[in-house]
Write a structure and sequence with these properties.
698 residues, mainly alpha
């Protein structure tokens, strides 16, 4: 009798607890539990109402339902015979099922919203019902299945995303089939973050200080001995990584032209974008760990470490994409260089190089945030520059065989110079970091290599100009030599202000400026080479003038006009400051023409005015000029030797001042010997001036 009384009292107590919970009354009338709960929440018990069901009452209801289920199983007929318990039998029989449904709703709400309080209450309710281990096992299995389905749908356009309440509704899932690969991957990454957050929320709810003794069996169930004490979230992350890795491998091994193979090709084209999508997952995990540091201090550090591990593992999982991307990136960087020097063309243009640079910039910007990848891209750019330099050297070799400076050669030279200059300068500006502190050794090494490549290209851009300048110099020399074939004593036509040879030099300079110099990219080296060309022109001109014979007054007047023309030409490609003493030689030569020979004599040290003339020209030019004034008996060295002005000019170009002085002394010796043998009059004035100059310069 005492035992029956105890059972009846417990039955009545549990039934009263169920009624007080306000959770199960609608269900007793046969209304489906989910609909009843939704109706109760939306209508009967508005938010903020004191009569609304308290979620925490679910725990008491679960405990009561569990005890009622045990009482009914032990002696079902007992409660049917007693009037005091008979009316509550329908409630008692449906209690466990109704509590389970209500716990499921609360659990689902807590998982979607990541509400630790709701999750904790739902879990305690399941624990009270004896279903905790089973429920969490089902939930983890569902999360794993969701991960696998999301990853497959993300990579395979033929697979649709599943709808997930609170994450992806059916209409969104249907529309996802129309997304491009990047939209699908973004959806996949978003779902993976949500699933990982749910797994972490579940574990946090389990570890919060609710009823640790009730969670111990569950934790033992989640942590298998082979996992070496990993948390549930860590084990779940391993599943995520392995799923992604398997899908990537499947995509890389897919047959060509299939949907999966096409997807993989697109991924390898823009691996940095793939990496950004997947890197958001560990970042989300770190944020959750930080947010729950106060509530679960023992778990938060583990999750932070798990996030760090996940970051490395997820990158490893998509390593196949990275390796294919590096190969494809190398092709994207180097292939344009090959096309610039294809068989159908022999030189690139400056615009072509800037288009190549645009491609490289896009490649580099995508990986700049990843030091290792940036280093590889910079290294590939270095290889591309080496290829460009090799092709440029080949073109230069062909140009160096050219003997004529025609329009074709000028065009090729200018294009090659400008492209080398443009590419090297742009690479230096966009890809070289001279003051950066590198954290990645590969990037640092690649940066140093790129500096060497750019320096080499800069040198090549200067070397390619040497042949055209050399050919132009020879043309100018040939034009100046024409002065010896021209009668400089004749009157010039009215439409000419200089000699014919000077007019030829003028045309060479005009063509050089308009069709070469102005079309080349401005650089310090170009200015230096132009200045050297002008100095060489002045030297060639003064040497040829010193070889003229005889130098009459009419010739002097013509030479003054020619000197003015040369002054104008050389200053059109350089400046008086850059030309320095070379330019001053033209002024000195103009003055020297009208200085009497007798005024060139001096005792000891020449006067200041005379010194400006004597020192203003190279010694051999000064000496040979006086020979031009001398009588026929004092022969100019080239006349004495029987050489043409051209032959002697070429000899002068190859020999130093002392050799030229020696030729002058030999002419003096011949003249002096002739005078001595013939017992003639005194030596001519020019002899004494030349002798004095030789002593002075020596």
């Amino acid at each position: 009798a005492a035992e029956v009384l105890r059972k009846v009292n417990r039955f009545a107590y549990c039934a009263r607890r169920l009624k007080e919970s306000k959770l199960l009354n609608p269900a007793a009338s046969g209304v489906p539990p989910r609909a009843a709960a939704a109706s109760a929440t939306a209508t009967d018990h508005p938010a903020g109402s004191s009569s609304a069901p308290n979620p925490e009452a679910l725990i008491f209801a679960a405990e009561a339902a569990k005890e009622l289920d045990g009482l009914l199983r032990a002696d079902p007929s007992l409660f049917e015979r007693l009037d005091a318990t008979r009316r509550d039998l329908p409630l008692a029989r449906r209690a466990a099922e109704n509590v389970k449904h209500r716990a499921a709703e609360l659990f689902h709400q807590g998982m979607v919203a990541r509400n630790m309080s709701e999750l904790g209450i739902a879990l305690q309710a399941y624990n009270a019902l004896g279903l905790l281990k089973e429920k969490v096992g089902e939930e983890v299995a569902a999360l794993v299945a969701n991960v696998q389905a999301a990853v497959q749908a993300g990579f395979d356009p033929n697979v649709s995303f599943r709808a997930h309440a609170g994450l992806l509704d059916p209409s969104q899932a249907a529309r996802s089939s129309k997304l491009d690969i990047w939209g699908r991957l973004a959806t996949m990454a978003s779902l993976l973050q949500a699933f990982i957050a749910q797994a972490l929320s579940l574990e946090i709810a389990l570890l919060r200080r609710q009823d640790m003794q009730a969670y111990v069996p569950l934790l033992n169930h989640i942590r298998s001995p082979s996992e070496n004490g990993k948390t549930m979230t860590e084990s779940f992350l391993d599943v995520v990584v392995s799923t992604v890795k398997n899908q990537v491998v499947n995509a890389s091994n897919a047959k060509k032209k299939t949907a999966l193979a096409t997807v993989f090709d697109k991924l390898t084209m823009d691996y940095p974008r793939v990496r950004v999508l997947f890197e958001g997952i560990p970042e989300m995990l770190r944020s959750l760990a930080l947010a729950n540091l106060a509530t679960v201090p023992t778990l938060a550090p583990k999750i932070s470490r798990a996030a760090q591990t996940l970051e490395g593992n997820i990158i490893s999982a998509i390593a196949t994409v990275e390796s294919h991307y590096i190969v494809a990136s190398y092709s994207r960087i180097t292939d344009p260089i090959e096309s610039l020097f294809a068989s159908s063309r022999t030189w690139p243009s400056e615009v072509d190089c800037l288009l190549v640079l645009k491609t490289w910039s896009a490649e580099f910007q995508g990986v700049q945030s990843y030091p290792n990848l940036a280093g590889k891209v910079v290294k590939n750019i270095g290889h591309a520059l080496d290829m460009f330099s090799a092709h440029a050297e080949s073109v230069m070799s062909a140009l160096n065989q050219e003997q004529n400076l025609d329009n074709s050669m000028s065009t090729k030279t200018i294009a090659l110079h400008n492209s080398l200059k443009a590419l090297s300068q742009a690479v230096k500006k966009n890809f070289i970091f001279e003051e950066m502190v590198f954290t990645d050794e590969l990037w640092k090494s690649a940066n140093d290599g790129l500096i060497a490549c750019v320096k080499k290209m800069g040198n090549l851009s200067e070397d390619v100009l040497e042949r055209p300048f050399l050919l132009l110099k020879k043309k100018i020399e040939s034009a100046f030599l024409k002065m010896h074939d021209e009668d400089l004593t004749e009157e010039l036509p009215d439409d000419m202000n200089c000699s014919f040879y000077a007019g030829a030099v003028t045309r060479l300079y005009d063509d050089f400026r308009e069709n070469f110099m102005y079309r080349c990219t401005k650089s310090k080296q170009l200015l230096l080479m132009s200045s050297k060309l002008a100095k060489d022109s002045i030297s060639s001109f003064t040497k040829n003038v010193s070889l003229l014979y005889p130098l009459s007054e009419k010739m002097k007047l013509r030479l003054v006009a020619d000197i003015s023309k040369v002054e104008m030409l050389v200053t059109s490609v350089s400046t008086e400051k850059e030309l320095g003493s070379s330019y001053q030689q033209l002024h000195v030569l103009k003055r020297l023409l009208f200085v009497e020979t007798k005024d060139l004599l001096f005792e000891g040290t020449p006067s200041r005015e005379l010194s400006q003339i004597v020192e203003g020209l190279p010694g051999p030019i000064m000496v040979y000029h006086v020979f031009s004034r001398a009588p026929t008996t004092l022969q100019h060295p080239h006349r004495r030797l029987g050489w043409s002005p051209k032959a002697f000019f070429e000899w002068m170009e190859r020999h130093n001042d002392q050799d030229m002085y020696t030729k002058a002394r030999e002419s003096l010796d011949v003249y002096a010997s002739m005078k001595k043998d013939g017992d003639s009059a005194d030596l001519c004035l020019e002899f004494r001036v030349i002798q004095q100059l030789l002593e002075h310069f020596s």
